[in-house]
Structure formats: structure tokens, C-alpha cells
Write a structure and sequence with these properties.
Distance between the termini: 68 Å
CATH architecture of the largest domain: Alpha-Beta Complex
Bound molecules: threonylcarbamoyladenylate, magnesium ion
Structural class: alpha/beta
Strand content: 15-25%
Shape: elongated
CATH class of the largest domain: Alpha Beta
């Protein structure tokens, strides 16, 4: 079968161009079309042969019911056994829009469309192309997402082509969808309305209209491995699965980044192709083969919008090991995490602050190393010596990375230290030597650049024994450089380093 592609401007759908698609629907054929959530694969909902074709094209189990798409509320009355008040209220507020309601069915819609169930799922989409298609054809359209069963739902016409080209009659290309995740499904056939699938319309929004709303316990992540079956048949399958292994890493941002980079490093050693799902904010922090940006944390909807495309891209790239940040955002976070965790087969790692593994007290020698070794390095050394107990066996040194000739302390550093009761009589700067990095030594730098410099230049330095101060303290910002600034700035730098070192020491306590 040759799949016809019809391009339609979503802002101004051309009725003439849609005519052919309408004819295909009326004669029992299949048409993929854009909605505000994801692309749907549509067929006449009243025609059981059309529904059977949908299952066949998707490779979907036929006990997984389809959603019936309508353009007018009267159609709901035509196919539901009864229409409760709650459905009218929800329709008033959210239709047309990304909400699907489950109601008891009558005999108008065949059991082939509802996967044998005596309830029917109904939704009135808002996308102008979907609306035009439904109105012009006057067909109620059964439409699951237009992907091959088990792949991420399509958010672009190109995704539909990838999966279904040659298997269906027509694809209407209306450009990218808006939301990017499937509609919220709410079951109104039970005494208390229950969310069977989270989406753009969240619990709080539904509760504003309905009062109490439940969430199907089967879709809560905490029940993922307890054999509590989701009520929507489709939510039971391992959907949205990328080809490689995906793991979600949750926790505080800087700790997550570090954890993911550690995992990636191991995978790379095993010769694996690695990838990370990051945000605009964090994309430059990872050292894997491909970083793909899901979106911007300041605009959570961008993450929902791009998620499926990102998962598909990793398939194209042949990525074998993928890690994703966690996106528990306030409004659409539940829907994002529901899809992401399914894609990950519920593999989640909680990145703990593993600062405590690294106890400064366990080293014989701590070397602060930075710049020319007359400013931050000696200040940090002075602070640590004061913080450690009198009889501590730990030797604390300060070194420069580039020292042409020995220099005395920077005057402002000296002044700040003096006012904190620290003095280094006869101090002269020295350059870090490779043989000083013995096996019980930790080298601490002020920033990542210095750490890299040391790792490159000193054979004895490694990822374990060479660290950045702020990172050890679990801080996001690197230690400031007061060089050239006022005395006050040196004072601030001193205090910041003191706080960091206190954190490092206390995290090492049991
Ligand atoms: O946003 C959407 O809803 C998209 C677009 C195309 O409208 N459609 C979509 O359809 O996501 P699909 O088939 O991929 O997902 C439908 C979900 C499945 O999990 C299915 O099991 C559930 O709805 N469902 C359908 N009828 C149901 C019923 N009577 N009772 C319980 N769950 C039902
Ligand atoms: Mg689907």
C-alpha cells in the first residue's frame, strides 16, 4: 500500500485538501492526523473492520481499547449508555481539549473498537486539523496514538511515517503537535472519578470542576512492581520503550549530574554508546556521546513537548545506555514521569550525596592547588588547619599550578587570614609536584578547569584523588576568584571556602 501524505496548514486547514482523507475514513480506510496531544491513527469507530485494521497496522493487542474522537457533544449522547452530570461539567470546561472520559457504552460503538469492554473512551480534540477532519467527514473516529505498538507516541508526521508508512492509507502532516503527551484519561463509570492516565489536564484542574478525584493506584510508580494492575488496559504494557537501556536518575541536581557522569564513564569503558536526557540548564555538564535536550526547566511544558522525539532520536543514534534527569515538575510532571518511568522499565537510581564516602580525615595529605598558589590555595589551607583538631595527622599544603618563581602571600589574602587568626610566617609559593601526590593524598582545586589541568599534567592525579572544593561540598557554584578585587571580596571568598570546608568535614562524620 502506498501511503498518501497530505500537508495541511494547522492554522488554516484547507477543506478541499482534507476531502480525500474524509472519503478514506468513510470507506473504512485509515488516516493518521495531528491532535493537540500526539498524532492519532484514525478509522471509523462504528466500523468494526476499520478498528481491526487499526490493531493490525499498529501491531497492537486487540484487547486494548481505542479512544473515540468526536466534534460535537451530541455524539457523546449517541454512544454513551448515559451521560452523567460530571461529564457535562468536564466537557464545559475542557472540551475541545486533551481530556478523555470513560463512560458506559450502548450498542452504537462495536466491541471491536472498545476491546471487548462495556465502556467507551471519548475525547473531543481541539487541534484545528483534527476538528476539521471530524466535522467535514462527520465520522466518529476511533484513534489510538499513531505509533507502532511499543514505540514512543508520534509528535511529528515524520514519526508516523517511520512507523506506519506503507501500512495505512494516508497521513495528514500538520506539523508538530502542541502538548506532546497523550490526553488525560478520567474514568466516570466508577463512583469517584478516577484518573487512569495522567496528562496535561492534571488532578488539581479536574478537582476544581468535580471535587474529589482519585488516581488509579495501578499507575502510581510506588506500585509499579507490586502487581497492582492499571485499569486502562494500555497502561499495563511496557510502552514507550526505547531500544537501549534507559535509567532515570533522581536527586539534587549537582549530585545527579555527577552520578550520571560516573555511570557514563563506566559504560564508555565497556565500549557502550552513551546518551543523556538533559535540560537547557544542564546540557553542557555531561561527558557522554550524545546529550539531548528535553526542554527548559523554567517552562515545564517544553519537556513534555520534546520527550518522545528525544526517545526516538536515541533509537536513531543507536544509543545503548541512556540516563535521564527526573522531571517532577509542578503541573505536567506527573504525566512526564509516568511516561519516562515506563520507558525506563521503572529503572530508577536515587543519586545520594556520596560526599561521605570521601572523608578528608582519612587522608594523610590534603593539597589545595590553584593558580599561582598565593591566594585561594593558602587561604583554604589555613582554614582547614584551623578546622582540624590540634593533633590531626593530616598534613595540609598549598600549591600553585603555574609558579615561575617563589612569591610571598597575596597581601589581601594575608590581611584576611590575619584578621581570622591565621598567619603563615615566611610563606613562599611552590608549584605542585607529581611526587607530592602519594597514595594517601587528595588534591583539591577551586574549579573544574584546574582539576582538568592537573589530571592532564600529573600522572599521579586521577578522578578520585583530585577534586573540586565546591563539588565535594555539594555546592552548585564553584569557589569565587577574588583576584584583583577589593579586600571585602577576599573576605567573602574566605568565608565561602570556610563554609565549603565545614560542609566537607561534617559530611565525613558518621
Ligand atoms: O491523546 C490521546 O488520547 C491520543 C490522541 C490520538 O487522541 N490517543 C491515545 O490513544 O493516546 P491510545 O490508544 O494510544 O491510548 C488509549 C488508552 C489506552 O491506554 C487504553 O487502554 C485506554 O486509553 N482506554 C481506552 N478505552 C478504555 C476503556 N473503555 N476503559 C479503560 N481504558 C480505556
Ligand atoms: Mg498509545
Amino acid at each position: 500500500m502506498v501511503t498518501k501524505i497530505i500537508k495541511i496548514d494547522p492554522d488554516n486547514p484547507d477543506k478541499e485538501a482534507l476531502k480525500e482523507a474524509c472519503e478514506i475514513l468513510k470507506s473504512g480506510g485509515l488516516v493518521a492526523f495531528p491532535t493537540e496531544t500526539v498524532y492519532g491513527l484514525g478509522g471509523d469507530a462504528k466500523n468494526r473492520y476499520a478498528s481491526e485494521k487499526i490493531y493490525a497496522a499498529k501491531g497492537r493487542p486487540s484487547d486494548n481499547p481505542l479512544i473515540v474522537h468526536i466534534h460535537d457533544f451530541s455524539e457523546l449522547e449517541e454512544i454513551a449508555a448515559n451521560v452523567p452530570d460530571s461529564a457535562r461539567k468536564l466537557a464545559d470546561r475542557f472540551w475541545p481539549g486533551p481530556l478523555t472520559m470513560i463512560l458506559p457504552k450502548n450498542n452504537v460503538i462495536p466491541l471491536e473498537t472498545t476491546g471487548g469492554l462495556d465502556t467507551v473512551a471519548v475525547r473531543m480534540p481541539s487541534h484545528p486539523v483534527a476538528r476539521a477532519l471530524l466535522t467535514l467527514s462527520n465520522v466518529m473516529v476511533a484513534a489510538p496514538s499513531a505509533n507502532t505498538s511499543g514505540r514512543p507516541s508520534p509528535t511529528l508526521a515524520e514519526h508516523v511515517e517511520e512507523d506506519l508508512s506503507g501500512k495505512i492509507d494516508c497521513i495528514i502532516d500538520g506539523g508538530p503537535v502542541n502538548i506532546g503527551l497523550e490526553s488525560t484519561i478520567v474514568d466516570l463509570s466508577s463512583p469517584v472519578p478516577t484518573i487512569l492516565r495522567p496528562g496535561y489536564i492534571n488532578k488539581a484542574m479536574l478537582e476544581e470542576v468535580l471535587g474529589e478525584v482519585n488516581i488509579d493506584p495501578g499507575i502510581l510508580d510506588s506500585n509499579a512492581n507490586k502487581n497492582i494492575r492499571p485499569k486502562a488496559p494500555g497502561m499495563r504494557y511496557r510502552h514507550y520503550a526505547p531500544k537501549g537501556d534507559l535509567t532515570v536518575v533522581e536527586g539534587e541536581e549537582s549530585v545527579v549530574i555527577k552520578k550520571i557522569n560516573d555511570l557514563v564513564e563506566k559504560d564508555k569503558k565497556d565500549g557502550k554508546k552513551t546518551g543523556v536526557i538533559a535540560t537547557v540548564e544542564t546540557k553542557d555538564m555531561y561527558h557522554c556521546d550524545n546529550v539531548l535536550v528535553a526542554g527548559d526547566r523554567n517552562d515545564e511544558y517544553t519537556i513534555a513537548h520534546n520527550l518522545y522525539d528525544v526517545l526516538r532520536k536515541f533509537d536513531e543514534l543507536g544509543t545503548e545506555k541512556m540516563y535521564s534527569e527526573s522531571f517532577e515538575t509542578p503541573k505536567i510532571g506527573m504525566a512526564i514521569m509516568n511516561r519516562l518511568l515506563k520507558a525506563a522499565g521503572h529503572r530508577v537510581i536515587h543519586a545520594e550525596d556520596n560526599k561521605s564516602v570521601l572523608r578528608l580525615q582519612d587522608f594523610r595529605r590534603v593539597i589545595f592547588a590553584a593558580g599561582n598558589g598565593i591566594c585561594r590555595a593558602p587561604m583554604a589551607a589555613g582554614i582547614l588547619i584551623k578546622l582540624l583538631p590540634e593533633n590531626s595527622p593530616v598534613e595540609v599544603l598549598s600549591r600553585g599550578l603555574v609558579v615561575q618563581f617563589p612569591e610571598p602571600l597575596n597581601q589581601k589574602s594575608e590581611a584576611v587570614m590575619a584578621s581570622n587568626g591565621i598567619s603563615f610566617e615566611g610563606f613562599e609559593s611552590r608549584e605542585l609536584l607529581n611526587e607530592e601526590i602519594t597514595d594517601k593524598t587528595i588534591v583539591i582545586t577551586m574549579d573544574e578547569k584546574q582539576r582538568k589541568f592537573i589530571l592532564d599534567k600529573y600522572p599521579s592525579a586521577n578522578e578520585n584523588n583530585t577534586r573540586v572544593l565546591a563539588q565535594m561540598a555539594g555546592e552548585e557554584l564553584e569557589t569565587m576568584d577574588p583576584y584583583g578585587g577589593s579586600l571585602a571580596k577576599y573576605g567573602l571568598c574566605f568565608e565561602a571556602m570556610k563554609t565549603s570546608l565545614q560542609k566537607v568535614l561534617s559530611s565525613g562524620e558518621e
